[in-house]
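Consortium newsletter contribution from the modelling node. Members have asked for a concrete example of what our holo predictions look like. Here is one, prepared for the magnesium ion complex that several groups have been discussing at recent meetings.
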Amino acid sequence: MSGEILTVSGLNTSYGEAKVLFDISMSVGKGQIVSCVGRNGAGKTTLLKSIAGFLKPKSGSVTSDNTNLVGLAPYDIAKFGIKYIPQDKKVFFDLTVRENLELGSYATKDYNWDQVLAYFPKLELLMERKAGYLSGGERQMLMIGRAILGSPKVLLLDEPTEGLAPGIVTQLKNTFKALSKNTALVIVEQNLPLVCAISDKVYAIKDGTIVAEIVDKESIRVDVCERYL
Ligand SMILES: Nc1ncnc2c1ncn2[C@@H]1O[C@H](COP(=O)(O)OP(=O)(O)OP(=O)(O)O)[C@@H](O)[C@H]1O
Ligand SMILES: [Mg+2]
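And here is the predicted structure:
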């Protein structure tokens, strides 16, 4: 059994007076793919943002490698090796793919370009294209490519396949499997067949609480996950 690389314990997050996450606890092992499923508004994005430092939890802890991450700035959490890939696929539209990657390199001093191109050879062909012209799938490759420049400890992916064609979803599925050999993945995903094909563990989130932790392979099935949506 591999050790834990990310541990969330008793996490509560609010937007002003509105409480959204209630006592969330979860653990992610090294090299694991852990998925979070739940209806719209359940609090999945809020959870990832709380881990990545974009939202400050009211209480609870997020630890990785014996370091408490709560209270650190998002860029310090990214530098630490926990990279958040947001739901909105925002890249710098007026900059080229190369420039977008360079900015990612510059911010975190990560220069592992070979790895990025090994996972996403298509980016090599798109290097001089403005990111604003990329298709949804290409933009997702750029987002993930930028995040893996520095061989992160954990990738936090918020609905990475939303709106993408089946072909690219299959490709990303294989990429996630390959990435998980070196990096733990926490994936928020609505695509249950994908979730069930790749996950070592699934958390079901409902109204800001974890209502199920599905850990054994036999139980990670679409019909089981559906019960919690
Ligand atoms: N900036 C905000 N200010 C106030 N409330 C917010 C804010 N962002 C999200 N919420 C509320 O928090 C709750 C959880 O939202 P969140 O975006 O985390 O859900 P989600 O599970 O990611 O949903 P989806 O599947 O639609 O992406 C929702 O009720 C939402 O309205
Ligand atoms: Mg969301």
